[in-house]
Amino acid sequence: MTILTVQSSYIPSRVPVTKNSNFDQIPSWVSLKSSTSSSSSVKIEHKQGQVENLHLVSLSKNGKLNEAFEFFQEMDKAGVSVSPYSYQCLFEACRNLKSLSHGRLLHDRMRMAFENPSVFLQNCVLQMYCECGSLEDADKLFDEMPELNAASRVTMITAYAGQGFLDKAVGLFSGMLASGEKPPSSMYTTLLKSLVNPRSLNVGRQIHAHVMRTGLCSNASIEIGILNMYVKCGWLVGAKRVFDQMAVKKPVAWTGLMVGYTQAGRARDALKLFVDLVTEGVEWDSFVFSVVLKACASLEELNLGQQIHACVAKLGLESEVSVGTPLVDFYIKCSSFESACRVFQEISEPNDVTWSAIISGYCQMSQFEEAVKTFKSLRSKNAAVLNSFTYTSIFQACSVLADCNIGGQIHADAIKRSLIGSQYGESALITMYSKCGCLDDAHEVFESMDNPDIVAWTAFLSGHAYYGNASEALRLFEKMVSCGMKPNSVTFIAVLTACSHAGLVEQGRHYLDTMLRKYNVAPTIDHYDCMIDIYARAGLLDEALKFMKNMPFQPDAMSWKCFLSGCWTHKNLELGKIAGEELRQLDPEDTAGYVLPFNLFTWAGKWEEAAEMMKLMNERMLKKELSCSWIQEKGKIHRFIVGDKHHPQTREIYEKLKEFDGFMEGDMFQCSMTERREQLLDHSERLAIAFGLISVNGNAREPIKVFKNLRACPDCHEFAKHVSLVTGHEIVIRDSRRFHHFREGKCSCNDYW
DNA sequence: AGTGCTAGGT
Does the keyword Magnesium apply (predicted)? Predict the structure, then answer.
C-alpha cells in the first residue's frame, strides 16, 4: 500500500531522552528510506505527500527544527514536494525559535519551489525575518514582493515601530493611508504602543490628530492607546485632556492616568484621581489597587493604605496575588515589615514578584543575611520564583556583606539561568565585586556590558575610588564623558570621593567648580560636604572653615562631621571642640560628636573634658560601636573583636602574633597611652590577619582579605605594612571607608586616609 | 492596564 516502512536501521538521533511523560513525542519511525521500488512511489505520490507533509508539520509545531530539516531533505531526495502549509509551519517554527539561519535556508528553498508564492506565504517569511530580528532581510523581501497586502504592511510597521525606527514605521503608515488602504484598528494600537518616550511625542500627536479626523477616537482601545501613549511620552496634560473627553471612563483609563502621575512623582495627583474614582462609583479592579498602593507607598501614606487594605479584606481579595503583592510592597515601603509578612501569609499563590518584594524588603531593612537565607531556600525549593529582580537584590546584599564567595556563586547561577538583569543586575554586580575587594571581576563585568549606562560607569568609578585609585577614577570619568555619557549628581560624589581618598585638593575643587558650568549638574550640600572632607583630610582646616562659611548652604551635621574628623586626624583641639558642639547640636544621636572630641581631649591630656564627653554619651543612652573584624576562609566567616579569645584556634593566633613581637616594641614606642598600648596587641584586625596567616598556610598568591566595621587604626595599619614586608603576603583591609592594599611594606593609600 | 531591582560620602 505505502512506501512508508518501519526500518530498524533508522535510529532517531535527535529525539531527546526525557524522564517525563513523552506525550508530545513524535514517532520517529516515519522514514522515506525505502527498499521498495521507486516505480510504485509514483503511483501513490499524492497520498504519500500528504502523510510526509503532515509529519513535517508535526515536527515544526513541536519545535523540532533540526529533525524537520533532515526530514525535509529526505522528502527532497524522494521527490516528495513540500506543501505551502508545511512551509508556513516551518517558518513559524523558525520564528518561535528565533533561528534566522534556518529561516534563511528555508526562504531560499521556498523561492526554488514556487515561482509565485502567495502573499500569505510571503508574509510568513516577512514575519519570520522580523521576529528573528533581521529587519534587513525583511526590508529586502518587502521591496521584492510583487504583491503586498495590509498584513504585509502591518508586519513591517510593527517591526519598525518595535525596534524604534519611528520614521520608517510612520512613513509606511502614511503611505498606507495615502494609497487609500484602510489600516485595521489594531494597526493604530500597535503603533501607539511603540511610542514609549518623549522623543515620539510629536508622532503620537499626529496620530492622535489623524484619529480625530477619521472619527476613530470612538474606538475604546484606540482612545485608551492614545491616553497611554501620552503618559509614556511624558505629556500628562495631553493624557488628562484625553481622559476628560472620554464619554465612558473605564477603569483602564483611570489606572492609565494614575500610573502616569505616580511615575512622574506626582503621587498626590494620583491619589486625588483615586478619590474621584471612588466618588464616581467606578468599579475597582486589581489594577486600581496596585496603582493606588504604589502611590501610597511612595508617599508613605500608611493611613490611606491601611484603609485600602481594609477594602481588600472586605472584598476577600487578600489571597489574590495581584492585590496581595502590591500590598506587601506598600507595607515594606512604609517600614511595616511585620504587616507585610502578615499580608504575605494570606497570599495563596505567591509569585516571583511577591518574592522579589519580600527579598528587597529584607534588604531595605538591612537584613541582608536574611535576604540571602531566603534566597537560598527558594533556590532549593522553588527556583521558578526567582527572577532577575531578586538576583539584583541579592547582589546588593552580598556587596553589603562583602561576601564574594557566595556572591560569585550566585553570579554563576544567574548566568546559567540567564537572570542577570541588564543594566540593573550588571551594575549591582560591579558594586558587589568592588566592595568585596575584587576590582578585576568588577572590571570584567563592566567590560562585558553592551551599553554601560551612567549607573554602571558610576559604580565602576566608585570602585576605583574605594581603592584610592584616584588617577584611574578620574581617567575613567574623562573617558566616560568622551563616550557621550552625561555625569549626574552621584557621579560627582564618586569623583570627589576619589579625590578625597587620594588627597587631590586642587582636582576636587576643580570638579566642584565646573560641575554646574561644564556638565550642568547643580552641586548639592552633599557635594559641598565632600569638598569639606577633602580639605579637612588634607589638614587644610582653615580653608575648610572658610569654605563652610561661604558655601551656599547652611553646614549640616555631615559638614561638621567631616570637619571634626579632620580635626582629629590633624590633632586640632580648638577647632575640634567647636565642630563637636555643632555636630552634637545638629545630630545628638551621632556618636562621632562625642567619640572624636573624647579622643582629642584624651590626646591633649584633658581628662575632665574627656570624661564629660563620656558622661554626655551615657546620659543620651548612646553606645560607641564595638570594633570588629572578619575574614573568610573556605566560605566560612571568622569574626574577631578586641582581645577575642573565643576562636577555637586562639592559641595559634596569639602565637602567630608573637612572631611579630619585635615590631610591636617599635609600635609601643609611638604610643602615648598605657591603656592603648595593651589593647593594640590584640586589636581585632590583628587577630584576623594572624588567623589569615595561619590559614593561607604559606600560599602567598591569594591576598589575605580582612574586613572591618570601623576605620583602620594607624597602629594596625603600620602592623599590616610590616607583616606584608616580612611575610611577603599581600594583605587587603577593607575598613568602613575604603580598601587598603598592603604589598611589600607599602599601602595603596600612601598612608593617606 | 498594574506590582518587584541598579550607582554615594561620614
Answer: no
In contact, A29 and A10? CB cutoff 8 Å? yes
Q: What is the pLDDT of residue A302?
A: 92
Burial A256-282 (b: 16+ CB within 10 A, else e): bbbbbbbbeebbebbbebbeebeeeeb
Distance of CA A95 to the CA centre of its chain: 29
* Residues A396, A431: Cα–Cα separation, whole Å: 8
**Confidence class of residue A673 from pLDDT cuts 50, 70 and 90?**
very low
Instruction: Give Cα A120 to chain centroid, integer Å.
Output: 42
Whole-model pTM?
0.79
**Mean pLDDT within A70-91:** 92
Angle subtended at Cα A438 by Cα A432 and Cα A439, rounded to the nearest 5 degrees: 95
Cell digits for A431? 558594586
In the DSSP assignment, the letter for residue A385 is G
In this predicted structure, the answer to whether residue A35 has a pLDDT above a threshold of 50 is no
User: Structural domains in chain A?
Assistant: 452-523 (no CATH), 530-624 (1.25.40.10), 628-747 (no CATH)
**Which nt has its C1' nearest the CA of A711?**
B10
Query: Among all strands, which nt has the closest C1' to A488 (CA)?
Result: B7
Cell digits of residue A240:
488628562
Distance in Å from B6's C1' to A47's CA comes to 61
Is residue A287 within 8 A of residue A251, CB to CB? The reply is yes
Report yes or no: A242 and A226 within 8 Å, Cβ to Cβ. yes
- For chain A, the first-to-last Cα distance in angstroms comes to 91
> What is the DSSP secondary-structure string of A317-381?
-TT-HHHHHHHHHHHHHTT-HHHHHHHHHH-SS--HHHHHHHHHHHHHTT-HHHHHHHHHHHHHH
Least confident range of A36-45, A392-401, A510-519, A706-715:
A36-45
Measured from the Cβ of residue A630, the count of other Cβ atoms closer than 10 Å reads 20
